[in-house]
């Protein structure tokens, strides 16, 4: 009887050791799935509204008005009336809001790509940003300055590309990434550059 109890106890100990070993092995295997976890962590940061960072980096209406007080022509020499200047101030704030709203709406739909469109001929952005350029949501997160308007009277707008596929060249628009292969953004205009709005 004594031997039987001892054998049972030994058996139980062995079972416990076996269970413990299999659990700790599973713990060791866990790091293999880590990239997915940290990946999803980054994902949730990426989807945070760009509002705060974007607004912090841009001039407020008062600063723009003060600057425009001493500017009488735009970048191509077109005269700016008092009314033109007030429109530039209002458009800068409204277009910043539109860009933020577009990204916020895109985040609800898990949008990956945003493309640029141009509402009017904008000589200031020429050579830097054009119709059909696109950026990823991650790039916007990393570089909030990628959201238009880039300057006063900027004709550029950003639009969400539905679906997660890389934007393809269409007949209407020549799609290509805005950032270089080394992930460098082009030299973006200074906000003080002025393009008179049509
Ligand atoms: Zn522009």
Structure overview:
There is one protein chain. By secondary structure, the protein is an alpha+beta fold. It folds into two domains: 2-34; 53-177, no CATH class. Helices cover 45% and strands 9% of the residues. It contains six helices and four strands; from the N terminus they run H-H-H-H-H-E-E-H-E-E. The protein has helices spanning 2-29, 34-46, 51-57, 61-68, 82-108, 137-142, and strands at residues 113-118, 133-136, 156-161, 176-177. Strands 3-1-2-4 form a four-stranded mixed beta sheet. The longest helix is centred in the first third of the chain and has 28 residues, at 2-29. The radius of gyration is 28 Å and the shape is elongated. The termini are far apart. Mean pLDDT is 85; it is low at 28-39. The structure holds zinc ion. The site of zinc ion has 8 residues, from loops.
Describe the secondary-structure layout.
Blueprint: H1 2-29, H2 34-46, H3 51-57, H4 61-68, H5 82-108, E1 113-118, E2 133-136, H6 137-142, E3 156-161, E4 176-177
Parallel strand pairs: 2-4
Antiparallel strand pairs: 1-2, 1-3
Helix pairs in contact: 4-5
The structure holds zinc ion.
Zinc ion is lined by residues 122, 124-125, 150-151, 154-156.
Q: Structural class, judged by helices and strands?
A: alpha+beta
**Largest pleated sheet:** 4 strands, mixed
C-alpha end-to-end distance? 101 Å
- The DSSP helix count reads 6
User: Using only CA atoms, what is the Rg?
Assistant: 28 Å
Average of the residue pLDDT scores: 85
| Sequence of strands across the biggest β-sheet | 3-1-2-4
Helix content: 40-55%
Global outline: elongated
């Amino acid at each position: 009887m004594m031997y039987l109890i001892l054998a049972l106890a030994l058996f139980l100990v062995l079972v416990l050791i076996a269970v413990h070993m299999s659990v700790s092995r599973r713990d060791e295997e866990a790091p293999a799935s880590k990239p997915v976890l940290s990946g999803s962590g980054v994902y949730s940061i990426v989807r945070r509204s760009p509002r705060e960072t974007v607004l912090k980096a841009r001039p407020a209406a008062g600063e723009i008005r003060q600057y425009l007080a001493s500017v009488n022509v735009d970048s191509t020499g077109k005269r700016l009336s008092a009314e033109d200047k007030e429109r530039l101030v209002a458009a800068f704030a409204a277009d910043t809001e539109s860009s933020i709203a577009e990204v916020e709406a895109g985040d609800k739909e898990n949008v990956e790509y945003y493309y640029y469109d141009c509402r009017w001929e904008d000589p200031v952005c020429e050579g830097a940003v054009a119709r059909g350029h696109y950026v990823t949501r991650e790039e916007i997160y990393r570089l909030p300055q990628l959201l238009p308007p880039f300057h006063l009277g900027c004709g550029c707008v950003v639009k969400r590309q539905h679906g997660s596929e890389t934007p393809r060249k269409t007949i209407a628009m020549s799609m290509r990434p805005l950032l270089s292969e080394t992930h460098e953004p082009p030299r973006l205009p200074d906000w003080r550059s002025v393009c008179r709005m049509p």
